């Protein structure tokens, strides 16, 4: 061995000894948890690999092997990078200082045990943001009430000091959060109010994140969506890391999101096209009747639930409805999505029943398959988006394939969402209107 190689080898060994001493002093109190993690995740160098490009990658710096979590495998991987045995990955730089060194080892250990002082992540707007932790004063400033639902399923209400006007306007659904100061919306922000609340984190809608961050220098701003099924697991998990509520995030993803959508996919993915009923969905937008088309979020949900959208080929989110085109396509199931007469404040199905009667009596619809079989449903648009979208998926899949989901009770799933994942004392047997069909409301009430 050459003298230079020997010196390099000795330096690296010395560094490891130093790191071991530092880690021992910093993690003495956390040793039982770390030991358990090491036992369950022990692997050889050849087994520590990066995730494939098709796998979900948690966008937090410290996720060295770029999988869906940060654990002891990331510590092993970053050490292998340091010794030149594995290629460097972007997220391996846990300290986010442009280099891989023993400080990254320490940061990953701290993240694993939830003791990190800073966390750097990539938000849904593809922005890299560093946040001081723990977060104690967050502002929910997103699109709709979705960020409020996520905060609540993470059991982190006590970390919120200000909310958007959307949350403030729903005291029945947000009895605690709605009482907090309102800071407007991403489209009409009250920056003076935001600054007066002295937040250490602002969560806003992803398309407005840069604009909001420019107005709030020195305050970490993350852009999130919270209503798209494709990004929900990532966003909920990231916020779980930020707020130190990883178990609650995993509980939602595993025991609500994956529990219901997973079964739906398992039951429907093997169906032939002929076995998938044709579905037509409509809604009132901008004062006119419109159909959901191929680029809509509803399209993705219909596909997952084993249905075929009669307007899937239309290259748009929504288009004005041509009723003759609906008659010609002869859907097996018709769903009207509405914001009117639905919600936690509503108790009467009068408006929903009238909407269904209107569809059933449309000129030329008497011979449409959905009308002949009575498979015409009115549902709240709110279910189609956000962290509670599995409720819509359960309803739709049962409407489309009652033989596959005979044992499912969608209302019970909705109650589970409210009780278990939102912590609300709200009885759906007494209040709230969300769906209308004679089967759901045999007494018309």
What would you say this structure looks like, in words?
With 445 residues, the protein is an alpha/beta fold. It has 3 domains: 3-116, no CATH class; 132-244, Nitrogenase molybdenum iron protein domain (Rossmann fold, 3-Layer(aba) Sandwich), CATH 3.40.50; 265-436, Rossmann fold (3-Layer(aba) Sandwich), CATH 3.40.50.1980. It is 39% helix and 14% strand. It is built from 16 helices and 15 strands. The strands form 4 sheets. Strands 9, 10, 11, 12, 13, 14 and 15 form a 7-stranded mixed sheet that branches. Helix 1 runs parallel beside helix 4 (102-112). Residues 21-47 and 50-54 have low confidence and may be disordered.
Fill in the keyword field for this structure.
445 residues, Rossmann fold, alpha/beta, 3 domains
């Amino acid at each position: 061995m050459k003298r230079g190689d020997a010196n390099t080898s000795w330096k690296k060994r010395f560094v490891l000894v130093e790191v071991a001493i530092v880690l021992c002093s910093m993690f003495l109190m956390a040793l039982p948890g770390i030991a358990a993690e090491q036992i369950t995740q022990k692997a050889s160098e050849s087994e520590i690999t990066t995730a494939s490009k098709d796998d979900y990658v948690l966008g937090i710096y410290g996720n060295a092997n770029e999988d869906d979590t940060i654990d002891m495998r990331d510590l092993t991987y970053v050490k292998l990078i340091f010794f030149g045995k594995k290629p460097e990955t972007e997220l391996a730089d846990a300290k986010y200082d442009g280099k891989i060194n023993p400080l990254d080892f320490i940061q990953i250990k701290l993240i694993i045990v939830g003791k990190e002082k800073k966390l750097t992540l990539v938000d849904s707007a593809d922005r890299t943001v560093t946040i001081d932790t723990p977060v104690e004063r967050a502002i929910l400033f997103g699109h709709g009430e979705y960020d409020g639902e996520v905060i609540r399923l993470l059991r982190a209400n006590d970390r919120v000091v200000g909310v958007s006007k959307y949350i403030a306007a729903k005291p029945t659904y947000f009895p605690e959060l709605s009482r907090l100061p309102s800071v407007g919306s991403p489209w009409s922000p009250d920056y003076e109010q935001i600054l007066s609340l002295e937040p250490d984190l602002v969560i806003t809608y992803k398309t407005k994140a840069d604009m909001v961050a420019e107005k709030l220098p020195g305050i970490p701003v993350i852009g999130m969506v919270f209503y798209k099924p494709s990004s929900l697991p990532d966003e909920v998990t990231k916020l779980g890391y930020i707020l130190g509520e990883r178990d609650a995030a995993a509980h939602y993803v595993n025991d609500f999101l994956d529990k219901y959508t997973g079964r739906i996919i398992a039951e429907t993915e093997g169906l032939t096209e002929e076995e998938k009923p044709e579905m037509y969905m409509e809604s009132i937008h901008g004062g006119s009747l419109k159909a959901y088309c191929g680029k809509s979020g509803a399209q993705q949900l219909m596909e997952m639930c084993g249905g075929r959208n009669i307007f899937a080929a239309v290259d748009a989110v929504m288009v004005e409805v041509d009723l003759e085109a609906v008659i010609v396509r002869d859907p097996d199931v018709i769903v009207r999505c509405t914001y009117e007469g639905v919600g936690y404040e509503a108790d009467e199905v009068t408006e929903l029943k009238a909407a269904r009667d209107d569809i059933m009596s449309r000129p030329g619809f008497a011979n449409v398959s959905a009308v002949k079989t009575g498979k015409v449903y009115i549902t709240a648009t709110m279910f189609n988006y956000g962290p509670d979208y599995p409720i819509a998926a359960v309803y739709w899949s049962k409407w489309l394939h009652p033989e596959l989901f005979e044992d499912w009770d969608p209302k019970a799933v909705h109650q589970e969402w409210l009780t278990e994942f939102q912590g609300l004392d709200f009885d759906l047997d007494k209040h709230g209107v969300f769906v209308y069909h004679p089967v759901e409301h045999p007494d018309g009430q």
